[in-house]
Design brief:
This is Acyl-CoA dehydrogenase. GO terms for molecular function: acyl-CoA dehydrogenase activity; flavin adenine dinucleotide binding. The chain has 385 residues and is an alpha+beta fold. The protein folds into three domains: 101 residues, Acyl-CoA dehydrogenase/oxidase, N-terminal domain (Butyryl-Coa Dehydrogenase, subunit A, domain 1); 108 residues, Butyryl-CoA Dehydrogenase, subunit A, domain 2; 149 residues, Up-down Bundle (Butyryl-CoA Dehydrogenase, subunit A, domain 3). 54% of the residues lie in helices and 14% in strands. The mean pLDDT is 95. The structure holds flavin-adenine dinucleotide (FAD). The site of flavin-adenine dinucleotide has 20 residues, from strand 1, strand 3 and helix 11.
Length: 385
């Protein structure tokens, strides 16, 4: 990739992904039940080798997969992303035994993963999480997990969960441990949630669920790093998902406004319409470039990844909301019919502004990084000139 465009091989790969999504994934997505894990779709993502790519690709290729799939089939995009989010901690921090047990099934789409960080009382402030990992009273060195997780994508139907639990009371981010918890552990139950987006999501309840040292991902009490490392990788790719949705809305709008008769011509002949479409394209392209740049910075190990990832996620998700809303407006009433692409995108586009760090949280990250990078003395910038 140059600073401004993808190389021809990546451009061709994106086109191939869009075709695969249209021809092989969308038919399976259409047969799925809203709010439930679509296992045939996950298995097809595995058969096509895309789930394996989750673990062999860098951040940029992850973004290209998410953008390309989102353009044609958001359900396939989300199923892919959730396998990555839930299983990345196992890939990056798991022991050989954990990786051998779980990752082949994740890669071939036979096992469904989930990432369980949020709780009813700890969303944006994830370090306030309260699900307790208490030492087993029998002195075995094992723990019991007790508490709740909420808004967990793929719950309660996933086969295993990366669960973040408090091992040191009152220690904030320093006292959290990541555990790999198989769904069939005694004491683990869950319930689906009915949300605006057509997304499998639910709650989890832990009633003294037994876990051992073999279930720890990474080191005890250092699980917050596992969560943040995973989110740093995925944050630009949420932006890529948003860019894919924005592009789909833009493409639909170009087709519609070019064909729709109005006032003795086509809608596109009205200058306000044409300028609105130009604005949608302008903002989508700006967001795309920022996402690619943030992902490339991640792959290069650049020092300013947190700031760039936050900027990319913020800009792209807010842009997609703007573009999808404008597309609805330019389509008129038909866009609001149940089952219309834009009705679907209108529901899909809202949640990414909240999850994996709400837009306000991204602004807080950007500001913190700016002040960290800035000269510490008020007069330093002037003196340095
Ligand atoms: C579709 C969907 C899927 C999800 N999937 C998962 C998942 O798989 N795993 C998981 O662990 N979680 C998941 N979540 C939960 C998600 O991560 C949380 O919703 C998110 O962290 C925000 O937490 P909250 O909803 O409790 O909002 P709160 O933290 O209560 O925040 C509410 C609002 O307050 C404002 N706000 C919060 N913090 C600040 C701040 N620092 N500065 C300024 N304003 C602020 C923002 O406007 C924010 O939207 C999912 C959520 C959704 C909607």
């Amino acid at each position: 990739m140059t600073a401004f465009s993808l190389d021809p091989a990546r451009t061709a790969w994106c086109a191939e992904l869009r075709t695969l999504a249209a021809e092989q994934l969308r038919p399976l997505a259409e047969k799925g039940e809203p709010g439930h894990v679509n296992r045939p779709l996950v298995a097809e993502l595995g058969r096509l080798g895309l789930l394996t790519r989750l673990f062999t690709s860098g951040a940029l290729d992850l973004c290209l997969m998410r953008e390309s799939l989102a353009q044609t089939c958001t359900e396939a995009e989300t199923a892919l992303a959730l396998q990555g989010l839930g299983a990345h901690p196992v890939h990056a921090y798991g022991t050989a035994a954990q990786r051998d047990r779980w990752l082949p099934g994740v890669r071939d789409g036979a096992l469904v993963a989930a990432f369980a960080l949020s709780e009813p009382g700890a969303g944006s402030d994830a370090a306030a999480l309260a699900l307790r990992a208490e030492p087993d009273p029998d002195g075995s060195g094992h723990w019991r997990l007790t508490g709740e997780k909420c808004w967990i994508s793929n719950a309660p139907e996933a086969d295993f969960y990366t669960v973040f639990a408090r091992t040191v009371p009152g220690a904030g981010a320093r006292g959290v441990t990541a555990f790999l918890v198989p769904a069939d552990r005694p004491g683990l139950t869950g319930a689906p949630l009915d949300m605006l987006s057509p997304h499998p999501i639910g709650t989890l309840a832990f009633d003294a669920v037994p876990v051992t040292a073999d279930d720890v991902l990474g080191e005890p009490d250092r699980g917050f790093r596992v969560a943040m490392h995973t989110l740093n990788l995925f944050r630009p790719s949420v932006g890529a998902f948003a860019v894919g949705m924005a592009q789909a809305a833009l493409d639909a709008t170009l087709a519609h406004t070019a064909g729709r008769d109005a006032f003795g011509g086509k809608l596109k002949d009205l200058q306000t319409v044409a300028h609105q479409v130009a604005e949608m394209a302008l903002r989508t392209e700006a967001a795309r470039l920022m996402v690619y740049a943030a992902a490339a910075a991640y792959d290069e190990g650049a020092p300013d990844v947190p700031k760039r990832a936050a900027m990319a996620k913020l800009l792209a998700t807010e842009t997609a909301q703007y573009v999808v809303d404008a597309a609805v407006q330019l389509h008129g009433a038909r866009a609001l019919s149940r089952g219309h692409l834009l009705e679907h995108l209108y529901r899909e586009v809202r949640a990414p502004r909240i999850y994996e760090g709400a837009s306000e949280v991204q602004r807080a990250v950007i500001a913190k990084e700016l002040y960290r990078e800035a000269p510490t003395r008020p007069d330093a910038a002037v003196e340095d000139q």
